[in-house]
Design goal:
Blueprint: E1 10-14, E2 17-21, H1 24-29, E3 32-34, E4 38-49, H2 60-66, H3 69-76, H4 81-99, E5 111-115, E6 121-125, H5 127-136, E7 138-147, E8 151-160
Antiparallel strand pairs: 1-2, 3-4, 4-8, 5-6, 7-8
Helix pairs in contact: 3-4
Protein backbone atom coordinates (compact mmCIF):
# COMPACT_ATOMS: atom_id res chain seq x y z
CA UNK A 1 0.00 0.00 0.00
CA UNK A 2 1.22 3.48 -0.78
CA UNK A 3 1.69 6.27 1.74
CA UNK A 4 -1.29 8.04 0.10
CA UNK A 5 -3.70 5.67 1.74
CA UNK A 6 -5.65 6.87 4.77
CA UNK A 7 -5.04 3.60 6.59
CA UNK A 8 -5.11 -0.06 5.73
CA UNK A 9 -8.66 -1.06 5.14
CA UNK A 10 -10.25 -2.40 8.28
CA UNK A 11 -13.75 -2.84 9.53
CA UNK A 12 -14.58 -1.71 13.04
CA UNK A 13 -17.79 -2.74 14.78
CA UNK A 14 -19.32 -1.22 17.89
CA UNK A 15 -22.80 -2.46 18.86
CA UNK A 16 -24.96 -1.67 15.82
CA UNK A 17 -22.48 0.80 14.31
CA UNK A 18 -20.30 -0.24 11.41
CA UNK A 19 -17.49 2.05 10.25
CA UNK A 20 -15.29 1.40 7.26
CA UNK A 21 -11.93 3.07 6.95
CA UNK A 22 -10.76 2.94 3.37
CA UNK A 23 -8.10 4.08 0.98
CA UNK A 24 -8.18 7.43 -0.80
CA UNK A 25 -8.84 5.62 -4.10
CA UNK A 26 -11.85 3.81 -2.67
CA UNK A 27 -13.20 7.08 -1.26
CA UNK A 28 -12.78 8.86 -4.60
CA UNK A 29 -14.51 6.13 -6.59
CA UNK A 30 -17.35 5.56 -4.11
CA UNK A 31 -16.36 1.91 -3.63
CA UNK A 32 -16.92 1.76 0.11
CA UNK A 33 -18.58 -1.51 1.00
CA UNK A 34 -20.93 -2.25 3.87
CA UNK A 35 -21.26 -5.99 4.06
CA UNK A 36 -21.27 -7.86 0.77
CA UNK A 37 -24.29 -6.31 -0.91
CA UNK A 38 -24.42 -2.59 -0.08
CA UNK A 39 -22.27 0.35 -1.05
CA UNK A 40 -22.08 3.87 0.19
CA UNK A 41 -23.10 6.35 -2.50
CA UNK A 42 -22.35 9.48 -0.49
CA UNK A 43 -22.09 11.19 2.87
CA UNK A 44 -23.53 14.59 3.69
CA UNK A 45 -23.31 16.79 6.75
CA UNK A 46 -24.85 20.12 7.64
CA UNK A 47 -24.28 22.54 10.50
CA UNK A 48 -27.06 25.08 10.99
CA UNK A 49 -27.06 28.05 13.37
CA UNK A 50 -30.42 28.34 15.13
CA UNK A 51 -30.21 32.12 14.65
CA UNK A 52 -30.69 31.55 10.89
CA UNK A 53 -34.04 29.85 11.37
CA UNK A 54 -35.69 31.94 14.10
CA UNK A 55 -37.92 33.72 11.57
CA UNK A 56 -38.81 30.45 9.86
CA UNK A 57 -41.53 29.43 12.31
CA UNK A 58 -43.85 32.35 11.47
CA UNK A 59 -43.24 32.38 7.70
CA UNK A 60 -46.11 30.14 6.50
CA UNK A 61 -45.17 30.38 2.81
CA UNK A 62 -41.60 29.25 3.59
CA UNK A 63 -42.86 26.36 5.72
CA UNK A 64 -45.18 25.19 2.92
CA UNK A 65 -42.38 25.45 0.31
CA UNK A 66 -39.87 23.46 2.36
CA UNK A 67 -41.80 21.02 4.57
CA UNK A 68 -44.44 18.41 3.76
CA UNK A 69 -47.85 18.54 5.45
CA UNK A 70 -46.83 15.61 7.68
CA UNK A 71 -43.60 17.37 8.72
CA UNK A 72 -45.55 20.53 9.59
CA UNK A 73 -48.06 18.46 11.56
CA UNK A 74 -45.31 16.72 13.56
CA UNK A 75 -43.66 20.09 14.23
CA UNK A 76 -46.87 21.48 15.75
CA UNK A 77 -47.07 18.48 18.08
CA UNK A 78 -43.62 19.28 19.51
CA UNK A 79 -42.80 21.34 22.55
CA UNK A 80 -40.30 23.31 20.43
CA UNK A 81 -41.53 23.47 16.80
CA UNK A 82 -38.64 25.74 15.78
CA UNK A 83 -36.04 23.15 16.81
CA UNK A 84 -38.01 20.49 14.92
CA UNK A 85 -38.02 22.64 11.76
CA UNK A 86 -34.31 23.40 12.17
CA UNK A 87 -33.39 19.72 12.49
CA UNK A 88 -35.47 18.82 9.44
CA UNK A 89 -34.08 21.69 7.36
CA UNK A 90 -30.51 20.72 8.27
CA UNK A 91 -31.37 17.10 7.54
CA UNK A 92 -32.63 17.95 4.07
CA UNK A 93 -29.41 19.83 3.32
CA UNK A 94 -27.33 16.84 4.48
CA UNK A 95 -29.41 14.47 2.32
CA UNK A 96 -28.88 16.65 -0.77
CA UNK A 97 -25.13 16.49 -0.11
CA UNK A 98 -25.19 12.70 0.43
CA UNK A 99 -27.00 12.32 -2.90
CA UNK A 100 -24.59 14.78 -4.57
CA UNK A 101 -27.45 16.89 -5.92
CA UNK A 102 -28.09 20.62 -6.16
CA UNK A 103 -30.85 21.65 -3.72
CA UNK A 104 -31.65 24.76 -5.78
CA UNK A 105 -32.87 22.66 -8.69
CA UNK A 106 -35.20 20.38 -6.69
CA UNK A 107 -38.24 20.57 -4.44
CA UNK A 108 -37.24 20.47 -0.76
CA UNK A 109 -40.49 18.62 -0.02
CA UNK A 110 -39.16 15.68 -2.04
CA UNK A 111 -37.18 14.88 1.11
CA UNK A 112 -39.46 14.06 4.00
CA UNK A 113 -37.96 13.50 7.45
CA UNK A 114 -40.43 12.20 10.00
CA UNK A 115 -39.92 10.80 13.47
CA UNK A 116 -40.53 7.07 13.81
CA UNK A 117 -42.31 5.49 16.79
CA UNK A 118 -39.12 5.90 18.87
CA UNK A 119 -38.56 9.52 17.83
CA UNK A 120 -35.66 8.76 15.46
CA UNK A 121 -35.65 10.71 12.17
CA UNK A 122 -36.46 8.62 9.08
CA UNK A 123 -35.98 9.84 5.51
CA UNK A 124 -38.42 9.19 2.67
CA UNK A 125 -37.73 10.48 -0.83
CA UNK A 126 -40.54 11.53 -3.16
CA UNK A 127 -41.04 12.79 -6.72
CA UNK A 128 -38.12 13.75 -8.91
CA UNK A 129 -35.57 13.15 -6.16
CA UNK A 130 -36.86 9.58 -5.62
CA UNK A 131 -36.49 8.96 -9.36
CA UNK A 132 -32.95 10.38 -9.32
CA UNK A 133 -32.01 8.24 -6.31
CA UNK A 134 -33.40 5.13 -8.01
CA UNK A 135 -31.33 5.91 -11.12
CA UNK A 136 -28.21 6.26 -8.93
CA UNK A 137 -28.98 2.94 -7.23
CA UNK A 138 -29.61 4.55 -3.85
CA UNK A 139 -32.03 2.45 -1.85
CA UNK A 140 -31.84 3.95 1.62
CA UNK A 141 -30.89 7.14 3.43
CA UNK A 142 -29.68 6.95 7.03
CA UNK A 143 -29.65 10.15 9.06
CA UNK A 144 -28.47 11.28 12.47
CA UNK A 145 -29.34 14.65 14.04
CA UNK A 146 -28.02 16.34 17.15
CA UNK A 147 -28.37 19.84 18.55
CA UNK A 148 -27.29 22.24 21.22
CA UNK A 149 -28.93 25.53 22.10
CA UNK A 150 -27.31 27.44 19.20
CA UNK A 151 -26.61 24.78 16.53
CA UNK A 152 -28.06 21.76 14.75
CA UNK A 153 -25.70 19.17 13.24
CA UNK A 154 -26.92 16.53 10.80
CA UNK A 155 -25.14 13.59 9.21
CA UNK A 156 -26.65 11.59 6.30
CA UNK A 157 -25.52 8.51 4.38
CA UNK A 158 -26.97 7.44 1.03
CA UNK A 159 -26.69 3.65 0.76
CA UNK A 160 -26.95 1.82 -2.53
CA UNK A 161 -29.02 -1.33 -3.04
Amino acid sequence: MSRGLLVRRRLMRNADTCVLIASNKECATGRLRRGDDSMLHGIGTDLLAMSRVKTMENDRSFLKRVFTADEREQAQQREDPLRYYATRFSGKEAVFKALRTDPDSLDMRDIEILADENGAPCVTLHGELRSMADAMGVGEIKISVTWESDYVLTFAMALMY
